[in-house]
């Protein structure tokens, strides 16, 4: 009985899902696009990111009654609340792909999900030592009951296994059924430990709700680090209990503040999704709003700004003021107390020595130290700041010697890097291009690095200029293909074992929560596969899988950008990358082709 | 909870001042040596209402008169009273609905609480001279707006020739209002504004064929257009990729052409959109593209015994058959195709307003497609044509002429009261090359929408030959650019600065359209791609300003905030610090 509103279904032919017109003859064997893609052609079906171990997917699908899915946790009594949240999220994802619950066909088999994870004595916490691998087995017993077994050494691996399981449960719009792969075995583990996204919430504020959407997207693709660039010279939207003036003076408005409760909410939301939320307090530069009336900053909002910083408003801490370090300690204390970070980001980029040099008190202080006023002397001042600030970090961290991340900067160049930055303590986050020779020099010294080369991973690139005309400094726009093919190995060369991973970034000068989703997604998914799977093949082999994955992002509430006309999703491999209408020179091409054809 | 709407809430203790250079500055941040007006404002938005000749009005008024006082009246939006003076019942009803929309927009400016016991009375009288609800290129959209305040009340007097001028006046009036940090709304106490658009065609093209766009997002596009005084939604509703529009006379088009049964526009949807748009002063111009860009939706011909109505359909390798996959081009030798197309036009004519016309597409015809199709080559030879470029161009022009004849016949039958035959619109193409256009496309009947780059000579050439133009400058107003290939993103200042060509007579350049092609866009990035940049084009087309984008930037940032308040996801163009600290990010 052909449905009145369905004209097309799909058949697997020659390794591709072919769109076919439904008729009496083929209705029974036609399948929906998500089902077809699960086993047609690719051995990994539609999974994103691609598993790194063995994948065996049967072609047999079994209808599941989603009212009868039960979870069993073997020996995880201590983390019941955490797992309950994971279970709820899992069920929400299944529901998200069903257009209308009422049209769901009746029937289907029961399904049991068994989580096999040792009980952990302390609350689940992601660190650089966490083993995020998992094994997923799906079997069907004699009565048709579907059994999914997930085995992992900890919560994080197990939740990744559940994420994969959710991708093997699909909605068939022809039969209006939820179906699961009847038999499957997957062994999977990430290649890179640090798989992150950075969001700048200072240049433009983002609601907690929008940040949570980003965390949800990260969970869907097994990214594990949300790098929260929470403050900058533009605004200070974080509540610091001991220093309430920081947010009262520094936030754009008092409704645009991340309160203690907001931070706790975000951190826990991330944890449930296998994500560490790491705070960054960028200093000594990138400081301004919130620090008014303290006499602890230099160059705040100095004009003309080009003389004192790289972007208005200017603002830099004054390292010569001892009381400034007390304020810094209170900020660090708040961040350690609320985030409990296993790694802490101290920023440290784009310091302007001419800013400090424009301050009479700083000049006098330096002279008193017996220093000159050359660039090298201001670098010593910067090193002094970094040393003092690190001391305060250690104080609030109770001597745990938390690893510290700094951006590449003047301080990470020789000779200063050798003098001030201990490679056993510091991790360097690279933001220059992937071919910058400075990267090699950092690696040769034994530092671990996190890659955020702007030419592939700054997802704000390609927008408008704002203090310049035309386009912004790192234009053009970076397509997902470039993100996908951004090889960390080619950046690190022989020192690949020093690469912890990478982060994509959104710097928010011209982006806020109204554009957040479509700037991150689905390009961040391309990064996720690069970091989880580190595929040997390039983006082309991933394209049709990403098109379908993007739909999954949308179904789960992410406003992911369209990649191609929907026709291309429904007609696999018919739309190569250079096919676009109304491009420059297209008219000339038409004439050229016309003349060539007619003259033949 | 729109975070943008409370931008000044935390600065309740600060006051704001307006400098002689039209900069709103918070108390304590004043610049030495600069002079400030004596009035003190409670917030930046309050200051912005009147700081500068045009205050916060977007687009900039064009009349000689534009004065806005620095003083405010505080009021409750529910205490506004309306009086309509209009010659007919239809115009009266239209203006009553306009009043309702105006109050709805006022409410969106509320910050915390708009209830105000001691509210000043606001009395708004709108007077319209003409009862007609026709919205077309000759329609008079001008208005005069006077606000004056006495001891007892504030009086707003709106005078316009048509209801559309009056609705634009209400839009401007909403720009003279902002939310108070305490209670109620603030309005300027006096204003005197006369205004009229420079161009009668001020459009946004929306492509819903490459990626489907749900109705909700089309309506929000219309809301943003209304806030910007844009008056044409060019609905590129179908293409080779999909045919989501219901055609009641030919239901096969949608059935075979829609991406899915839930990604469709019914006839009632289209009728509702036309009505929704009209109340906002917007026409909906439907484009049925052809002969190229016609494919999915046309597959059913052979099975129905009508032959191949579209050829090269979904053919591979696509480069031999079209400029973008999937391929599809109508068969100009198939009479059944013309009959079906006429049925489509008939449905479109019924859905649109009586005075509305049709966009027939006509771009990117790929002649090798026809030349690679046996039945077309054979058919041309049978008609005595050779296979030269000239013959194919002739065939192409016959396609347009036959469709124009069909359109004329439909309109004569359906709308006998409209005497003048309607001109149709087509894209610039090889057929509109100045060497050929006068041979194939009579200027009295065809309006050309050009999409060439700003330095291209085509606009000038066509204007010299007497053609009417609608301009869509590709390297400034193609808002999909910057995200694919070697295209660049056009920031709002580039959009703003893109000038309009000058015709031999005033009405020869009808106006322009910004274009949102949706190869890489669907509902998820639609609004942030279009807005607020389309607002920059709106000021170009309404005001045609001689001044630079730099001078407009503070009004523009406030305009963006109003879009956000109305639920439009307009993109950020600058860090929020720069909005709050005017003049410091240059």
Q: How is this fold's topology laid out?
A:
The complex is a heterodimer of chains A (600) and B (586).
Chain A: E1 8-13, E2 16-21, H1 33-39, E3 55-57, E4 61-74, H2 80-96, E5 109-116, E6 134-140, E7 146-151, H3 155-167, E8 169-172, E9 177-181, E10 184-188, E11 194-200, H4 208-220, E12 225-229, H5 245-250, H6 260-272, E13 276-280, E14 297-298, E15 316-317, H7 322-339, E16 344-345, H8 353-357, H9 360-368, H10 375-396, E17 404-407, H11 416-420, E18 426-430, H12 437-444, E19 448-451, H13 454-457, H14 480-484, H15 488-492, E20 499-506, H16 516-520, H17 523-532, H18 543-555, H19 566-570, H20 586-599
Parallel strand pairs in A: 4-5, 5-7, 11-12, 11-20, 12-13, 16-17, 17-18, 18-19, 19-20
Antiparallel strand pairs in A: 1-2, 3-10, 4-9, 6-7, 6-10, 8-9, 14-15
Chain B: E1 16-18, E2 24-26, H1 44-48, E3 66-68, E4 72-75, E5 80-85, H2 89-107, E6 121-128, E7 143-149, E8 153-160, H3 163-174, E9 177-179, E10 185-188, E11 191-195, E12 201-207, H4 215-227, E13 232-236, H5 252-257, H6 267-279, E14 283-290, E15 310-311, E16 329-330, H7 335-351, E17 359-361, H8 367-371, H9 374-382, H10 389-414, E18 424-427, H11 437-440, E19 446-450, H12 458-464, E20 469-471, H13 474-477, H14 492-497, E21 509-516, H15 526-530, H16 533-543, H17 549-565, H18 576-580
Parallel strand pairs in B: 5-6, 6-8, 12-13, 12-21, 13-14, 14-17, 18-19, 19-20, 20-21
Antiparallel strand pairs in B: 1-2, 3-11, 4-10, 7-8, 7-11, 9-10, 15-16
